[in-house]
Amino acid sequence: MRLSPLSPKPPKVGVCENVSTETISPALKIAGVQTEPPDRAAVGDPRADDTALGLLLASAHRAARGALGDELRPLGIETRHHAVLAALDRLGPTSQRRLGALLGLDKSAVVRVMDELERLGLAERKRDAHDRRAYAIELTDEGRRRARASARTAAAVGARLFGALGPGDRARLVELLTGITERAAGISTGGGASTGADTSAGGETASP
């Protein structure tokens, strides 16, 4: 399958009229995010401002997710379906509870995606052989075919998004994103935001 060239789509955010280019940092302009001028609480430079850095990170996620979604659409699926199909293709029949835990989805989200996949004829629920009160989810033959096609599509998109990263850059990016994810999880589970230096990341602090 030939993939069309990626055409970045800036996220739809509110744009203040008559914003001068001086009030929009270059990194945020590249990400498609515009901020308000200083007298209306401009976001600032993501190299020095935690809020701006958080917005840039969110914008990068939206852009990458949007790019993948555009390429998956010809297969008749969305990014939420791709993640579940990929997990089921790797794991085989899996309980809804385990699938939700692995993908970070709550019960209602798993049920919603499963309803969609069943309507598409890509997956089916069956009674779990080990727990008759629970259901195991498994792919249909068409679901396996679609899962592998979407995996090839995702790999091609990933190569274009991350291909310019050298091995050292990639390893460092993984390390940084993993650290941010772990700190954010600590805050959301009641750990609170740290005000001190984070010595595990070279003394840098991060804001979710």
TrEMBL record:
One of its GO terms (biological process) is response to stress. Residues 50-182 form the HTH marR-type domain. Transmembrane segments: none annotated. Residues 187-208 are annotated as: Disordered. It comes from the Bacteria. Pfam families: MarR_2. One of its GO terms (molecular function) is DNA-binding transcription factor activity. Residues 195-208 have a biased composition (Low complexity). Gene3D superfamilies: Winged helix-like DNA-binding domain superfamily/Winged helix DNA-binding domain. PANTHER family: MARR FAMILY REGULATORY PROTEIN, TRANSCRIPTIONAL REGULATOR, MARR FAMILY. This is MarR family transcriptional regulator. It comes from Actinomadura physcomitrii.
